[in-house]
Write a structure and sequence with these properties.
CATH class of chain A: Alpha Beta
CATH class of the largest domain in chain B: Alpha Beta
Shape of chain A: globular
CATH architecture of the largest domain in chain B: 3-Layer(aba) Sandwich
Number of helices of chain B: 13
Number of strands of chain A: 9
Order of helices and strands of chain A: HEHEHEHHEHEHEHEEEH
Largest interface: A-B, 46 and 60 residues
Radius of gyration of chain A: 20 Å
Distance between the termini of chain A: 73 Å
Distance between the termini of chain B: 54 Å
CATH architecture of chain A: 3-Layer(aba) Sandwich
Number of helices of chain A: 9
Largest sheet of chain A: 9 strands, mixed
Strand content of chain B: 15-25%
Oligomer: heterodimer
Structural class of chain B: alpha/beta
Helix content of chain A: 25-40%
Largest sheet of chain B: 8 strands, mixed
């Protein structure tokens, strides 16, 4: 019997697969499409740094065969900013959950987007905190039942695409776990953007969210996503709703804006050439 | 002349000397958030780093600052941040991550009066225990305590060297008095400055185990983007870096190594200054700005014929247990003046007959006077 190698094996970390994710979870789809995107682009994986936070999807940095770092809860983006700032030749990719990126890490998200630093962010939005047992989070839909909203969620969820666009992202797309090829195409586009890009993948947690909200099995969950998804590319993301009866998906932003580390490098060069011209060692007083 | 080492003699601010020490040590990344009384370090770095081709980033908070420092260090650049108590509290989360992922980095805490917002412009030494115990779990760090503007420069270089050597966060635990002090600073020639760089892997990427350590207990550190394609996590991990969330053996093995790489080198790491201790009956143990008052008290006491000496702690963590134990055995009394309500005195008590040890706490905005220290040494 000859051993057959998985076509993506070279892009994974040896000894780390199988992954921890449940049947019906879109995290595996995100991993697969991310690796297929790298493969199709023949992207130099030595230049990719995958950074993740805490939660189920946080384990993804262990599965990708890249330089990887699994940070503390919410801090993946801040870590990635440090990497990019000193190594502009590298492409940090932050893959994390809705709670990690938008609750505990929300401040880092808006500021990284504001700076337009060259980082690609993929958010696995599962509508709850899955790893800790299905508590409500910043994207839990109104009226949804979770282990901490036993009487129905009364809090308004974030519209992540709108938040990303308003914060300054130059590429914003939203898909669901059934839009497999569209996820891949968005990743291929976003990873080559020079600036802050954001891809949201809606994939309700089947184990914790689904069974408490009338989507008890994964197949039914996928069918539900297909039924309620509507593609409306380049509409104002404020109109791109995520509701039980309608999920607006598509690409919402795709524009150009000078990237942070390019500005940083230009500023540094100006400072240095001015010093040289003036024959000075420093502008500072000690 | 090099832009990163501005050799010469200056009348400099402590915080500025710290920043210049960092540049001389090879620091090329600073991420921080403004806070009194540490802001001058950030301001000076923001001006100086671009001059030497480095990067200054003003982050959205101290949580992000510490995370960015770890990221930049893994990307191969000597990195630091500087803060004061409230910011130091926020950094503790990722200081734990730095300890767990063995990240070389330097954190300067210019201590002010706490708890909470406290008195932002007033001095204290209230964070010295937080430096050791601030983040959750068992780990070891190194902390230095400069007493002068010159030491702000020298200790910052030393902090970088120790962090590169032992792959752990190293703290410069200074205080508002030293940070805002202006006095003589001599910046040496670059060739006179001893620098240490992290141990690099000698194995090819296919054989590299990112958390495998030899006898020195410190693993070789690869850099992002070199083809090693390694993985680091805040989860308990084995030598490959892979998570080990269930194994009691791996948990014990990792935590013991993280602690032992420092503990077993305590003698090599720790530094103290001994003044008139050979025949002393009374020993003052002090650190930071308080040691300046203590030195005056000892000189005054000797002039009056007292057998009094000073043990100045340059390294606070790991605590120099053996040195304190030896000194304690030969004196009748140990006085520990600190600008807090009695913190490091507990470490002294661990190493001495408790009846000999007297705490001299001081809260408020002023340093202990030499007279006050001498009076308590006599009583």
């Amino acid at each position: 019997m000859s051993e057959v190698q998985h076509p993506l094996e070279d892009y994974t970390r040896r000894g780390m697969i199988p992954h921890i994710w449940c049947n019906g979870c879109g995290d595996g789809i995100i991993l697969g499409e991310f690796l297929r995107a790298l493969d199709e682009l023949k992207y130099d994986i030595n230049k990719v740094v995958v950074v993740s936070g805490i939660g189920c999807i946080g384990r993804i940095s262990g599965y990708t065969g890249t330089d990887s770092f699994h940070t503390t809860h919410g801090r993946a983006l801040a870590f990635a900013v440090g990497v990019k700032a000193v190594r502009p030749d590298l492409k940090p990719v932050v893959i994390s959950g809705d709670g990690d990126l938008f609750a505990i890490g929300g401040n880092h998200f808006i500021h990284a987007a504001r700076r337009n630093i060259d980082v690609m962010v993929i958010c696995s939005n599962n509508f709850n905190y899955g790893m800790t047992g299905g508590q409500s989070g910043p994207t839990t839909p109104i009226d949804a039942y979770t282990t901490t909203t036993r009487y129905g969620n009364i809090e308004h969820p974030f519209n992540l695409a709108h938040l990303a666009a308003a914060s300054g992202a130059i590429y914003v797309a939203r898909w669901t776990a059934i839009h497999v090829k569209r996820i891949r195409e968005s990743i291929k586009k976003a990873i080559n953007k020079k600036g802050f890009s954001f891809i949201e993948v809606i994939t309700p947690c089947p184990e914790e969210y689904g069974r408490r909200n009338k989507i008890p099995d994964p197949i039914q969950g996928m069918k539900w996503l297909r039924e309620v998804s509507v593609v409306r590319s380049f509409i104002d993301p404020i109109e791109a709703v995520v509701q039980p009866d309608k999920i607006v998906v598509g690409e919402f932003v795709d524009k150009e804006k000078t990237e942070f580390t390019e500005l940083l490098s230009a500023s540094t060069q100006t400072v240095q050439s001015k010093l040289e011209k003036e024959g000075k060692l420093t502008n500072a007083t000690i | 002349m090099r832009r990163d080492v501005l050799t010469g003699k200056y009348f400099a601010l402590g915080d500025v000397a710290c920043a210049e020490g960092a540049l001389a040590a090879g620091c090329r990344f600073f991420a921080g958030y403004p806070i009194t009384p540490a802001t001058e370090i950030a301001e000076h770095m923001s001006r100086r780093l671009p001059e030497v081709g480095g990067v200054y980033l003003q982050m959205e908070d101290e949580l992000a600052s510490m995370a960015a420092v770890i990221g930049a260090s893994y990307a191969g650049v000597k990195s630091m941040t500087a803060t004061s108590g409230p910011g130091f509290s926020l950094m503790q989360e990722n200081i734990g991550l730095a300890a767990m992922t063995e990240t070389p980095c330097v954190v300067v805490d210019v201590m002010r009066a706490g708890p909470s917002t406290g008195q932002p412009t007033k001095t204290s030494q209230q964070d010295v225990m937080q430096a050791k115990w601030g983040s959750h779990g068992d780990y070891e760090v190194i902390a230095l305590s400069p007493s002068s503007v010159q030491e702000m420069f020298d200790h910052t270089i030393e902090a970088f060297n120790l962090s590169e050597m032992y792959r752990c966060p190293v703290f410069v635990m200074t205080d508002e008095i030293v940070g805002h002090l202006m006095e003589r600073l001599a910046v040496p020639n670059p060739e006179e400055i001893h620098l240490v760089d992290r141990k690099r892997p000698t194995t090819p990427p296919s054989k590299y185990l990112p958390f495998q350590a030899g006898e020195d207990l410190v693993p070789a550190m690869a850099t992002f983007g070199e083809g090693y394609r390694f993985y680091a996590t805040g989860l308990t991990h084995d030598e490959t870096g892979h998570p080990q969330t269930d194994s009691p053996e791996e948990q014990a093995k990792l935590v013991q190594r993280l602690c032992d790489k420092i503990r077993k080198n305590t003698g090599k790491i720790t530094k103290v200054e001994r003044v008139f201790l050979d025949d002393a009956d009374v020993c003052i143990i002090a650190y930071g700005s308080v040691a300046r008052s203590a030195l005056s008290a000892v000189v005054e006491g000797r002039e009056r014929g007292m057998k009094i000496g000073l043990l100045r702690l340059i390294t606070l963590w790991p605590f120099p247990d053996e040195v304190v134990e030896q000194v304690a055995a030969h004196v009748d009394k140990i006085l520990v003046p600190e600008m807090n309500y009695g913190q490091l005195v507990r470490e002294v008590e661990r190493n001495a007959d408790r009846k000999k040890v007297v705490s001299l706490p001081r809260l408020g905005d002023a340093l202990h006077t030499p007279e006050e220290i001498l009076a308590h040494a006599l009583s």
